[in-house]
Specification:
about 140 residues; alpha+beta; Nuclear Transport Factor 2, Chain: A; six-stranded mixed sheet; about 20% helix; globular; disordered N terminus; RNA binding
Length: about 140
């Protein structure tokens, strides 16, 4: 009987925080999946991946990123085509989510091995070895 009395006496104290907040949970504001936070933290879409800061990419890759941001014009006919992610090295997404763009390789007579892969939500990935490995491109 005493235990029941103690429980009933403390019950209002346990419910008080829910009443004060209106029964709503408070959450931290979420950053968008495609944008790194101002603190330099890794964006959620890049978690678990090797990252590279945009300013550390080769100059040709930075120019390709600028062209992507402007919507072209692109120097190669295959630029902007769907990247199938057949190697499954990027997060799985529906077909058409990723598009590939050539990063010119000085001295190469063809497109070379370097690419930027762009996701639908502004994610950017760099590969220097024709899709063997990827680095998530972050802004800080």
């Amino acid at each position: 009987m005493r235990a029941l009395t103690v429980l009933l006496a403390t019950l209002p104290l346990l419910l008080l925080p829910a009443c004060v907040s209106g029964g709503q949970k408070t959450e931290k504001p979420r950053t968008t999946a495609a944008t790194p936070t101002d603190t330099g933290a890794t964006p959620s879409w890049a978690k678990g991946m090797k990252t590279v800061r945009e300013d550390r990419l080769p100059p040709e890759a930075r120019r390709t990123l600028d062209l992507i941001a402007k919507g072209g014009p692109f120097p190669y006919p295959k630029d902007g085509t769907v990247f199938g992610n057949h190697e499954n090295r990027l997060p799985r997404q529906p077909r058409g989510y990723y598009h590939e763009y050539t990063v010119p390789t000085p001295g190469s007579r063809d497109r070379g091995a370097r690419r930027i892969i762009a996701g639908e939500h502004s994610e950017r990935y760099y590969t220097s070895d024709h899709y063997e490995t990827f680095e998530a491109v972050v802004h800080r």
